[in-house]
Protein backbone atom coordinates (compact mmCIF):
# COMPACT_ATOMS: atom_id res chain seq x y z
CA UNK A 1 0.00 0.00 0.00
CA UNK A 2 2.82 2.39 0.87
CA UNK A 3 4.41 1.64 -2.52
CA UNK A 4 1.20 2.63 -4.29
CA UNK A 5 0.88 5.81 -2.23
CA UNK A 6 4.52 6.75 -2.88
CA UNK A 7 4.09 6.11 -6.59
CA UNK A 8 0.93 8.18 -6.75
CA UNK A 9 2.62 10.93 -4.72
CA UNK A 10 5.59 10.98 -7.11
CA UNK A 11 3.27 11.16 -10.10
CA UNK A 12 1.32 14.00 -8.52
CA UNK A 13 4.47 16.00 -7.81
CA UNK A 14 5.64 15.53 -11.39
CA UNK A 15 2.54 17.19 -12.81
CA UNK A 16 2.69 20.81 -13.86
CA UNK A 17 -0.13 21.77 -11.49
CA UNK A 18 2.15 21.74 -8.45
CA UNK A 19 5.14 23.37 -10.16
CA UNK A 20 3.68 26.39 -11.93
CA UNK A 21 3.56 29.95 -10.59
CA UNK A 22 0.83 32.53 -11.06
CA UNK A 23 3.06 34.05 -13.74
CA UNK A 24 3.04 30.79 -15.70
CA UNK A 25 -0.74 30.69 -15.60
CA UNK A 26 -0.88 34.31 -16.77
CA UNK A 27 1.40 33.56 -19.73
CA UNK A 28 -0.67 30.46 -20.57
CA UNK A 29 -3.74 32.71 -20.70
CA UNK A 30 -1.89 35.16 -22.97
CA UNK A 31 -0.90 32.25 -25.24
CA UNK A 32 -4.54 31.17 -25.47
CA UNK A 33 -5.55 34.74 -26.39
CA UNK A 34 -2.94 34.79 -29.15
CA UNK A 35 -4.21 31.45 -30.44
CA UNK A 36 -7.75 32.84 -30.46
CA UNK A 37 -6.66 35.91 -32.42
CA UNK A 38 -4.79 33.74 -34.92
CA UNK A 39 -7.42 31.04 -35.42
CA UNK A 40 -10.74 32.81 -34.85
CA UNK A 41 -9.80 36.28 -36.12
CA UNK A 42 -7.19 35.32 -38.70
CA UNK A 43 -4.51 37.74 -37.43
CA UNK A 44 -1.44 36.38 -39.25
CA UNK A 45 -1.82 32.77 -38.09
CA UNK A 46 1.48 31.75 -39.70
CA UNK A 47 3.20 33.91 -37.09
CA UNK A 48 0.91 33.80 -34.09
CA UNK A 49 0.12 30.07 -33.99
CA UNK A 50 3.75 28.87 -33.58
CA UNK A 51 4.65 31.81 -31.30
CA UNK A 52 1.63 31.24 -29.06
CA UNK A 53 2.21 27.49 -28.93
CA UNK A 54 5.86 27.97 -28.00
CA UNK A 55 4.67 30.32 -25.24
CA UNK A 56 2.23 27.67 -24.07
CA UNK A 57 4.83 24.91 -24.00
CA UNK A 58 7.53 26.79 -22.11
CA UNK A 59 5.15 27.91 -19.37
CA UNK A 60 3.84 24.38 -18.86
CA UNK A 61 7.22 22.68 -19.17
CA UNK A 62 10.09 25.19 -18.66
CA UNK A 63 12.74 22.53 -19.26
CA UNK A 64 11.86 22.53 -22.96
CA UNK A 65 14.09 25.63 -23.20
CA UNK A 66 16.79 24.57 -20.72
CA UNK A 67 20.41 24.62 -21.89
CA UNK A 68 22.68 21.54 -21.54
CA UNK A 69 24.65 23.32 -18.81
CA UNK A 70 21.51 23.86 -16.75
CA UNK A 71 19.96 20.42 -17.25
CA UNK A 72 20.47 17.50 -14.88
CA UNK A 73 21.47 15.08 -17.63
CA UNK A 74 23.55 17.42 -19.80
CA UNK A 75 20.97 17.39 -22.63
CA UNK A 76 19.23 20.63 -23.52
CA UNK A 77 15.53 21.07 -24.22
CA UNK A 78 14.18 20.77 -27.76
CA UNK A 79 13.36 24.45 -28.24
CA UNK A 80 16.74 25.50 -26.82
CA UNK A 81 18.37 24.13 -29.96
CA UNK A 82 15.82 25.89 -32.16
CA UNK A 83 16.63 29.12 -30.31
CA UNK A 84 20.37 28.72 -30.90
CA UNK A 85 19.68 29.14 -34.61
CA UNK A 86 18.07 32.49 -33.77
CA UNK A 87 21.12 33.59 -31.79
CA UNK A 88 23.44 32.52 -34.60
CA UNK A 89 21.39 34.57 -37.12
CA UNK A 90 20.66 31.47 -39.19
CA UNK A 91 16.85 31.55 -39.08
CA UNK A 92 16.48 35.35 -39.60
CA UNK A 93 18.70 35.18 -42.67
CA UNK A 94 16.77 32.22 -44.09
CA UNK A 95 13.51 34.10 -43.54
CA UNK A 96 14.90 36.93 -45.68
CA UNK A 97 15.82 34.40 -48.36
CA UNK A 98 12.21 33.20 -48.42
CA UNK A 99 10.78 36.73 -48.40
CA UNK A 100 12.97 37.64 -51.36
CA UNK A 101 11.85 34.57 -53.28
CA UNK A 102 8.18 35.42 -52.64
CA UNK A 103 8.30 39.16 -53.33
CA UNK A 104 7.89 41.07 -56.57
CA UNK A 105 10.15 44.14 -56.47
CA UNK A 106 8.49 45.46 -59.64
CA UNK A 107 6.37 48.14 -57.88
CA UNK A 108 9.50 49.53 -56.22
CA UNK A 109 11.43 49.56 -59.49
CA UNK A 110 8.51 51.15 -61.34
CA UNK A 111 8.16 53.91 -58.75
CA UNK A 112 11.59 54.68 -57.21
CA UNK A 113 10.05 57.40 -55.03
CA UNK A 114 8.85 54.47 -52.92
CA UNK A 115 12.38 54.31 -51.52
CA UNK A 116 11.77 57.67 -49.85
CA UNK A 117 8.51 56.47 -48.30
CA UNK A 118 10.26 53.36 -47.00
CA UNK A 119 13.05 55.49 -45.57
CA UNK A 120 10.61 57.90 -43.90
CA UNK A 121 8.96 55.03 -42.03
CA UNK A 122 12.30 54.23 -40.38
CA UNK A 123 11.90 57.41 -38.32
CA UNK A 124 10.15 55.29 -35.72
CA UNK A 125 13.32 53.24 -35.19
CA UNK A 126 15.60 56.19 -34.51
CA UNK A 127 12.97 58.03 -32.49
CA UNK A 128 12.51 54.96 -30.30
CA UNK A 129 16.29 54.67 -29.92
CA UNK A 130 16.50 58.09 -28.28
CA UNK A 131 13.42 57.36 -26.16
CA UNK A 132 14.90 54.01 -25.02
CA UNK A 133 18.05 55.75 -23.82
CA UNK A 134 15.91 58.20 -21.85
CA UNK A 135 14.11 55.23 -20.28
CA UNK A 136 17.37 53.81 -18.95
CA UNK A 137 18.52 51.31 -21.58
CA UNK A 138 22.21 51.37 -22.51
CA UNK A 139 23.08 52.33 -26.09
CA UNK A 140 23.27 48.81 -27.53
CA UNK A 141 20.13 47.65 -25.74
CA UNK A 142 18.32 50.80 -26.94
CA UNK A 143 19.34 50.05 -30.53
CA UNK A 144 18.19 46.44 -30.26
CA UNK A 145 14.82 47.50 -28.84
CA UNK A 146 14.24 50.35 -31.29
CA UNK A 147 14.45 48.14 -34.37
CA UNK A 148 11.01 46.79 -33.40
CA UNK A 149 9.71 50.00 -35.01
CA UNK A 150 10.47 48.50 -38.40
CA UNK A 151 7.90 45.74 -37.71
CA UNK A 152 10.52 43.25 -38.84
CA UNK A 153 10.94 40.24 -36.55
CA UNK A 154 13.96 38.64 -38.30
CA UNK A 155 15.92 41.92 -38.29
CA UNK A 156 15.06 42.48 -34.62
CA UNK A 157 16.44 39.04 -33.73
CA UNK A 158 19.47 39.53 -35.98
CA UNK A 159 20.44 42.89 -34.47
CA UNK A 160 19.88 41.79 -30.86
CA UNK A 161 22.24 38.87 -31.45
CA UNK A 162 24.89 40.98 -33.17
CA UNK A 163 24.83 43.59 -30.39
CA UNK A 164 25.15 40.94 -27.68
CA UNK A 165 21.67 41.57 -26.27
CA UNK A 166 20.62 37.92 -26.11
CA UNK A 167 19.04 38.51 -22.72
CA UNK A 168 16.56 40.89 -24.36
CA UNK A 169 16.14 38.89 -27.56
CA UNK A 170 13.04 37.05 -26.37
CA UNK A 171 10.93 40.08 -25.41
CA UNK A 172 12.19 42.00 -28.47
CA UNK A 173 11.30 39.18 -30.85
CA UNK A 174 7.88 38.57 -29.30
CA UNK A 175 7.06 42.29 -29.38
CA UNK A 176 8.22 42.61 -33.01
CA UNK A 177 6.28 39.60 -34.23
CA UNK A 178 3.22 40.49 -32.20
CA UNK A 179 3.10 43.98 -33.70
CA UNK A 180 3.64 42.49 -37.17
CA UNK A 181 0.61 40.29 -36.62
CA UNK A 182 -1.43 43.18 -35.22
CA UNK A 183 -0.74 45.56 -38.12
CA UNK A 184 -4.44 45.48 -39.17
CA UNK A 185 -5.41 46.75 -35.70
CA UNK A 186 -2.64 49.25 -34.95
CA UNK A 187 -2.15 51.05 -38.27
CA UNK A 188 -5.67 52.07 -39.46
CA UNK A 189 -6.43 54.50 -36.58
CA UNK A 190 -3.09 56.26 -37.15
CA UNK A 191 -3.64 56.40 -40.91
CA UNK A 192 -7.16 57.80 -40.60
CA UNK A 193 -6.16 60.35 -37.97
CA UNK A 194 -3.47 61.83 -40.22
CA UNK A 195 -5.35 61.90 -43.53
CA UNK A 196 -8.56 63.39 -44.88
CA UNK A 197 -11.31 61.48 -46.68
CA UNK A 198 -10.31 63.23 -49.89
CA UNK A 199 -6.68 62.11 -49.53
CA UNK A 200 -7.66 58.52 -48.73
CA UNK A 201 -9.81 58.41 -51.88
CA UNK A 202 -7.00 59.48 -54.25
CA UNK A 203 -6.72 57.05 -57.15
CA UNK A 204 -3.14 56.59 -58.34
CA UNK A 205 -2.13 56.03 -61.96
CA UNK A 206 -1.18 52.52 -63.04
CA UNK A 207 2.49 51.65 -62.59
CA UNK A 208 4.63 51.35 -65.70
CA UNK A 209 5.59 47.85 -66.87
CA UNK A 210 8.96 46.68 -65.54
CA UNK A 211 11.21 44.68 -67.87
CA UNK A 212 12.72 41.31 -66.98
CA UNK A 213 16.22 42.81 -67.30
CA UNK A 214 15.39 45.48 -64.71
CA UNK A 215 14.10 42.85 -62.30
CA UNK A 216 17.25 40.75 -62.73
CA UNK A 217 19.65 43.68 -62.34
CA UNK A 218 17.86 45.15 -59.31
CA UNK A 219 18.88 42.56 -56.67
CA UNK A 220 22.44 42.47 -57.98
CA UNK A 221 22.84 46.26 -57.92
CA UNK A 222 21.19 46.65 -54.50
CA UNK A 223 23.45 43.97 -53.03
CA UNK A 224 26.58 45.64 -54.40
CA UNK A 225 25.61 49.16 -53.34
CA UNK A 226 24.18 48.41 -49.89
CA UNK A 227 26.75 45.80 -48.87
CA UNK A 228 29.66 47.94 -50.05
CA UNK A 229 28.43 50.79 -47.84
CA UNK A 230 27.32 48.62 -44.91
CA UNK A 231 28.99 45.19 -45.21
CA UNK A 232 27.40 43.98 -41.96
CA UNK A 233 24.00 43.95 -43.69
CA UNK A 234 25.15 41.21 -46.07
CA UNK A 235 23.48 38.31 -44.20
CA UNK A 236 20.07 39.99 -44.43
CA UNK A 237 20.22 42.09 -47.60
CA UNK A 238 22.27 39.43 -49.37
CA UNK A 239 19.79 36.65 -48.60
CA UNK A 240 16.83 38.89 -49.48
CA UNK A 241 18.32 39.72 -52.86
CA UNK A 242 19.49 36.16 -53.51
CA UNK A 243 15.94 34.92 -52.99
CA UNK A 244 14.64 37.60 -55.35
CA UNK A 245 17.25 36.67 -57.95
CA UNK A 246 16.03 33.06 -57.71
CA UNK A 247 12.56 34.40 -58.51
CA UNK A 248 13.40 36.78 -61.34
CA UNK A 249 16.19 34.93 -63.15
CA UNK A 250 13.80 32.22 -64.28
CA UNK A 251 16.56 29.60 -64.48
CA UNK A 252 16.40 28.19 -60.94
CA UNK A 253 12.68 27.62 -60.52
CA UNK A 254 13.26 24.69 -58.15
CA UNK A 255 15.36 26.85 -55.81
CA UNK A 256 12.78 29.65 -55.89
CA UNK A 257 9.95 27.25 -55.10
CA UNK A 258 11.91 25.63 -52.26
CA UNK A 259 12.95 28.96 -50.72
CA UNK A 260 9.45 30.44 -50.91
CA UNK A 261 7.52 27.34 -49.82
CA UNK A 262 9.03 24.33 -48.04
CA UNK A 263 12.11 26.05 -46.59
CA UNK A 264 10.19 29.19 -45.65
CA UNK A 265 7.52 27.28 -43.75
CA UNK A 266 10.06 25.07 -41.96
CA UNK A 267 11.98 28.14 -40.81
CA UNK A 268 8.75 29.86 -39.67
CA UNK A 269 7.94 26.83 -37.51
CA UNK A 270 11.40 26.76 -35.94
CA UNK A 271 11.66 30.50 -35.46
CA UNK A 272 8.08 31.00 -34.27
CA UNK A 273 8.12 28.27 -31.63
CA UNK A 274 11.57 29.22 -30.36
CA UNK A 275 10.60 32.89 -30.11
CA UNK A 276 7.43 31.97 -28.25
CA UNK A 277 9.46 29.76 -25.93
CA UNK A 278 11.47 32.74 -24.71
CA UNK A 279 8.37 34.00 -22.89
CA UNK A 280 8.60 32.00 -19.71
CA UNK A 281 7.02 33.89 -16.82
CA UNK A 282 10.38 34.24 -15.10
CA UNK A 283 12.02 35.85 -18.13
CA UNK A 284 9.06 37.81 -19.47
CA UNK A 285 7.19 39.30 -16.51
CA UNK A 286 9.51 42.12 -15.47
CA UNK A 287 9.87 45.89 -15.84
CA UNK A 288 12.34 45.67 -18.74
CA UNK A 289 9.90 43.62 -20.80
CA UNK A 290 7.09 46.07 -20.15
CA UNK A 291 9.38 48.91 -21.30
CA UNK A 292 10.28 46.97 -24.45
CA UNK A 293 6.64 46.30 -25.32
CA UNK A 294 5.77 49.99 -24.81
CA UNK A 295 8.79 51.23 -26.78
CA UNK A 296 8.03 48.80 -29.59
CA UNK A 297 4.47 50.08 -29.89
CA UNK A 298 5.63 53.71 -29.80
CA UNK A 299 8.26 53.01 -32.46
CA UNK A 300 5.74 51.23 -34.68
CA UNK A 301 3.19 54.04 -34.37
CA UNK A 302 5.85 56.68 -35.02
CA UNK A 303 7.08 54.79 -38.09
CA UNK A 304 3.55 54.49 -39.48
CA UNK A 305 2.88 58.18 -38.81
CA UNK A 306 6.15 59.28 -40.41
CA UNK A 307 5.40 57.27 -43.56
CA UNK A 308 1.90 58.74 -43.85
CA UNK A 309 3.09 62.31 -43.21
CA UNK A 310 5.82 61.99 -45.82
CA UNK A 311 3.17 60.58 -48.16
CA UNK A 312 1.10 63.72 -47.53
CA UNK A 313 4.12 65.85 -48.42
CA UNK A 314 4.61 63.93 -51.67
CA UNK A 315 0.90 64.26 -52.35
CA UNK A 316 1.25 68.04 -52.21
CA UNK A 317 4.46 68.09 -54.29
CA UNK A 318 2.94 65.87 -56.99
CA UNK A 319 -0.34 67.81 -56.96
CA UNK A 320 -2.45 64.95 -55.69
CA UNK A 321 -0.93 62.07 -57.63
CA UNK A 322 0.18 60.07 -54.55
CA UNK A 323 -2.22 58.67 -51.99
CA UNK A 324 -0.64 59.27 -48.53
CA UNK A 325 -1.95 55.91 -47.29
CA UNK A 326 0.78 54.03 -49.12
CA UNK A 327 3.34 55.71 -46.84
CA UNK A 328 2.15 53.57 -43.93
CA UNK A 329 3.38 50.50 -45.82
CA UNK A 330 6.95 51.76 -45.34
CA UNK A 331 7.21 49.55 -42.27
CA UNK A 332 8.59 46.21 -43.37
CA UNK A 333 5.72 43.89 -42.45
CA UNK A 334 5.42 42.34 -45.92
CA UNK A 335 2.79 42.14 -47.33
CA UNK A 336 0.55 42.90 -44.35
CA UNK A 337 1.18 46.64 -44.27
CA UNK A 338 0.49 46.94 -48.00
CA UNK A 339 -2.80 45.08 -47.54
CA UNK A 340 -3.80 47.51 -44.79
CA UNK A 341 -3.12 50.46 -47.12
CA UNK A 342 -5.36 48.81 -49.70
CA UNK A 343 -8.10 48.09 -47.15
CA UNK A 344 -8.22 51.62 -45.71
CA UNK A 345 -8.22 53.14 -49.19
CA UNK A 346 -10.98 50.83 -50.37
CA UNK A 347 -13.16 51.91 -47.44
CA UNK A 348 -13.36 55.37 -49.04
CA UNK A 349 -13.58 54.16 -52.64
CA UNK A 350 -14.19 50.44 -53.25
CA UNK A 351 -12.80 50.78 -56.79
CA UNK A 352 -9.48 52.17 -55.57
CA UNK A 353 -6.67 49.61 -55.90
CA UNK A 354 -3.63 50.70 -53.88
CA UNK A 355 -2.06 47.32 -53.16
CA UNK A 356 0.61 47.34 -55.87
CA UNK A 357 1.45 50.99 -55.19
CA UNK A 358 1.82 50.19 -51.47
CA UNK A 359 4.09 47.21 -52.20
CA UNK A 360 6.78 49.64 -53.35
CA UNK A 361 7.22 51.34 -49.94
CA UNK A 362 6.62 47.97 -48.26
CA UNK A 363 9.56 46.33 -50.00
CA UNK A 364 11.63 49.49 -49.52
CA UNK A 365 10.86 49.23 -45.80
CA UNK A 366 12.37 45.74 -45.65
CA UNK A 367 15.58 47.05 -47.16
CA UNK A 368 15.41 50.19 -45.00
CA UNK A 369 15.09 48.26 -41.74
CA UNK A 370 18.07 46.07 -42.67
CA UNK A 371 20.03 49.23 -43.47
CA UNK A 372 19.02 50.76 -40.12
CA UNK A 373 20.34 47.63 -38.39
CA UNK A 374 23.57 48.00 -40.37
CA UNK A 375 23.88 51.63 -39.30
CA UNK A 376 23.61 50.64 -35.63
CA UNK A 377 26.23 47.91 -36.09
CA UNK A 378 28.53 50.40 -37.81
CA UNK A 379 28.05 52.92 -34.99
CA UNK A 380 29.04 50.33 -32.38
CA UNK A 381 31.87 48.90 -34.47
CA UNK A 382 30.30 45.45 -34.84
Describe the structure.
- By secondary structure, the protein is an all-alpha fold.
- 72% of the residues lie in helices and 0% in strands.
- The protein has 21 helices and no strands.
- The chain has helices at residues 2-14, 22-39, 45-60, 78-87, 90-102, 106-110, 114-120, 123-134, 139-146, 153-162, 166-181, 183-194, 197-200, 212-229, 234-249, 253-260, 262-276, 281-284, 287-317, 336-348, 355-379.
What's the topology here?
Elements: H1 2-14, H2 22-39, H3 45-60, H4 78-87, H5 90-102, H6 106-110, H7 114-120, H8 123-134, H9 139-146, H10 153-162, H11 166-181, H12 183-194, H13 197-200, H14 212-229, H15 234-249, H16 253-260, H17 262-276, H18 281-284, H19 287-317, H20 336-348, H21 355-379
Features:
382 residues, mainly alpha
**Overall residue-averaged pLDDT value:** 88
Could you say which overall geometry the principal axes of the C-alpha atoms support?
A: globular
Instruction: Indicate the proportion of strand residues.
Output: under 5%
Overall SS class:
mainly alpha
Order of helices and strands: HHHHHHHHHHHHHHHHHHHHH
Helix content: over 70%
Q: Please give the radius of gyration in angstroms.
A: 22 Å
Separation of the first and last Cα atoms: 65 Å
Amino acid sequence: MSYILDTMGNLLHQTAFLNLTWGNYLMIAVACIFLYLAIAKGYEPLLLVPIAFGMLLVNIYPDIMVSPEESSNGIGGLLHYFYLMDEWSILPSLIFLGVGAMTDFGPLIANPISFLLGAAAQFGIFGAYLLAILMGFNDKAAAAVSIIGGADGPTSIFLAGKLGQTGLMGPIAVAAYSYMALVPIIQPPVMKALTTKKERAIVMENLRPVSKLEKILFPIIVTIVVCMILPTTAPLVGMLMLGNLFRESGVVRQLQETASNALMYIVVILLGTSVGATTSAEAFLNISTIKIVILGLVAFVFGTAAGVLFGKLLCVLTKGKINPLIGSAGVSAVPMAARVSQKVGAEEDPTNFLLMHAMGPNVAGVIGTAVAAGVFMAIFGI
